[in-house]
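Before a computer can learn anything about folding, someone has to put a protein's shape into writing. The outcome of that step, for a single protein, is printed below:
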Amino acid sequence: MMKGKQLSSALDRLHPPEWVYSTYESRLLAEMDRERLPHHVAVLADGNRRWARMNAPGEPLIAGYRAGAGKLLDFIGWCDEVGIQVVTLWVLSIDNLSRDEGSELEELLGVIEQLVVDLAASGRFAVQAVGDMRLLPDTMAERLEQVKQQTHDRPGLLVNVAIAYGGRHELRDAVRSLLSAEAAKGTDLAELATSLEIDQIAEHLYTKGQPDPDLIIRTSGEQRLSGFLMWQSAHSEFYFCEALWPDFRRVDFLRALRSFTQRERRFGH
């Protein structure tokens, strides 16, 4: 009988009909230890541009981002289905924000804003943007804040959408916020330098009050974090997938979960 890895490799090579994948997905779910599933999953949805060049030649690269946004909506549904509590999606880095210019950036921001609106319109999820909102157009930043306020008290899955996000920027902003809060209390800087604890910094991160990510997924074959959730990922497990993000399938997600549940987490020990 074919082992799990042999079966998955064979399926990928043969491109079988959907019902075969559906059967395989059911098998993955049945074999998975639900008690060991991650509480917080983060994803670097990488490869949208490359997907557009390969699958939509002659079309603007924004076609890849639209396909990627559709996949993100699917991904949130998959996470909700298995009971994930928090999902963080990195959709736009500060580096990309400063590197892109003109109409392509405007279109990309429009795709991202629509993604957030669609997630909120589902009525099922709490949705918030995390990142440096000061770098976004004022109207977009205001719309994102409205979505956060409108959805914050919804039970169930919390979706963080990382926009204008950079790990170093997050740490800088956390330190700035901490210093400002301590100054308002009259804390002496020298005193703070000797008394500062790790938890105090964590309370000023973009994801304050949330569990750290248990599992971080990156697509497109890149095997690095690029500064994503630098502080929060200290004890995270990583899963790297060759698929470009718009090609990421439910079966790929289930394989990532299976890999996670089979690992022995040591938390730095």
